[in-house]
Design a protein that fits this description.
five-stranded mixed sheet; Immunoglobulin-like; mainly beta
């Protein structure tokens, strides 16, 4: 028999061996003098070392898909990619029944996605059609100080009616963002933001994917009946969006079974980080706005936290058919406008009060005493330009979700990526349903009597 003393000694020796292996592995990554080395540069390579001929879509990179959005068109002039952003007021639809006068670019909220290739020389014109001065900051990009877009610090603000010119060389690759950097609290809260995707000049074999999506996360305060977002809100946001749309107004991410999928997530919300959760699959976190994560350091998740002002790239193989939710897991972020600020009615027994109140207010009824799920199936009137807290028609009844929520639709057979394939047809016997008496008896389950 092994004594307790021998067991403890063996455990200590094993732990010591592990510690030595860890020490040796760490030491192997350090210079000879034992100190961690600094990176050679923290602002990217110089322009001359990366400048290259303009990368072309379909030839040098696979264009990203921006659900509910679009790419910003460009032209090439003397080897330079020329873009034009127009900051202007936009009458924006968040979902059916809810629209507001926002600020955006080129008639869109959020602005169109800027897409280029590492080494491209970019010239971006910005025309201001707003009633206030503005500027554009290239969030996460390595740029000359005078092109950083911070009004009052690195440039003067772009006055209404003026057109400014920004010039830079794409000295990195990854997922980034652009937004106003003048009166940020107001201008970003009204929608002045968009995504930037820079593809690698010489992509590794692991970079290639079949579907590459880009989602910008944001939050808004739009009171019931209001026609504009409230930029002064700091805590209580009641419209949560993917690419400035709330479910059920969000486009599904359509993929074919077996596709390698990348989803780029950028967060320019006012105050909130978002834990984005995907059903049915796990994924690898492959990049941040600081760069690509080495293959050996990527980690598996089913939920990725996207902090304010950050981007995260996730990748997976879509090998399970179905309609899989992708949503923020903060529960109040997966609901719509009319649910915020509602009193707690759970457990309230209205008794005869409803009938009495209905004599004064026709159509009145107490809601929420058994939770808020029933609201998804109600057709009660709401104030003009406002929407219920949740609810979309699903194949089995109302879907009690809203806000920062969409679907990844994985299909074995797919005619086209460009159209929604409809609801998933589940194989027989694969849908949860009422347990039969025979099932209960077989497994010895006795549900308690009501």
């Amino acid at each position: 028999m092994v004594t307790r003393r021998e067991s403890l000694l063996a455990g200590a020796l094993g732990a010591g061996a592990v510690a030595l292996r860890v020490r040796d592995a760490v030491a192997a990554q350090l210079p000879a003098d034992g100190r961690r080395s600094w990176e050679a540069r923290y602002s990217g390579p110089d322009d001359k070392s990366v400048a290259a001929s303009p990368g072309l879509p379909g030839k040098d990179y696979q264009p990203v898909v921006t659900p509910n959005g679009a790419a910003l068109p460009f032209k090439i002039v003397d080897g330079v990619k020329v873009f034009h952003l127009v900051a202007e007021e936009v009458d924006h639809v968040f979902m059916a029944g809810l629209r507001a006068k926002c600020w955006g670019y080129n008639g869109r909220v959020h602005g169109p996605t800027i897409e280029a290739v590492e080494g491209d020389r970019l010239r971006i014109y910005v025309t201001n059609r707003l009633p206030a001065p503005t500027s554009v900051h290239w969030h996460g990009l390595f740029v000359p100080s005078g092109m950083d877009g911070v009004a009052g610090l690195t440039q003067r603000a772009i006055a209404p009616g003026e057109t400014f010119k920004y010039e830079l060389t794409a000295r990195q690759h990854g997922t980034f963002m652009y937004h106003s950097h003048h009166d940020e609290m107001v201008q970003m809260a009204l929608g002045l933001m968009g995504l930037i995707v820079l593809h690698p000049r010489r992509p590794s074999p692991d970079y290639r994917v079949d579907r590459d999506f880009a989602l910008l996360l944001s939050e808004w305060r739009i009171d019931a009946g209001a026609s504009r977002p409230n930029p002064n809100e700091m805590l209580e946001f009641n419209v949560l969006t993917f690419n400035a749309r709330s479910y059920p107004g969000t486009d599904a991410l359509v993929v074919k079974k077996g596709d390698r999928v990348r989803i780029r997530l950028g967060n320019l919300s006012t105050m909130d980080h978002h834990p984005i959760h995907m059903h049915g699959h796990f994924f690898k976190v492959t990049a941040t706005d600081g760069g690509t994560i080495p293959l050996s350091a990527q980690w598996p998740e089913a939920t990725v936290l996207v902090p304010v002002g950050s981007t995260r790239d996730i990748e997976f193989i879509a090998d399970a058919e179905g309609d899989w939710p992708l949503h923020c897991h903060m529960t109040h972020h997966a609901m719509n406008q009319m649910g915020h600020g509602a009193p707690n009615m759970v457990g309230v027994k209205p008794g005869p009060s409803d009938s009495g109140t209905q004599k004064l207010v026709p159509g009145y009824m107490t809601m929420g005493q058994d939770g808020m799920g029933d609201m998804a199936d109600m057709s009660m009137p709401v104030p003009p330009n406002s929407v219920p807290m949740m609810g979309a028609k699903g194949p089995f009844g109302p879907i009690t979700m809203g806000g920062m929520f969409t679907l990844i639709k994985v299909r074995d057979r797919l005619a086209s990526y460009d159209s929604d394939p409809g609801w998933y047809a589940h194989p027989k016997g694969t849908v949860a349903d009422v347990a039969s008496a025979a099932d209960l008896a077989r497994d010895g389950i006795q549900p308690p009597k009501p």
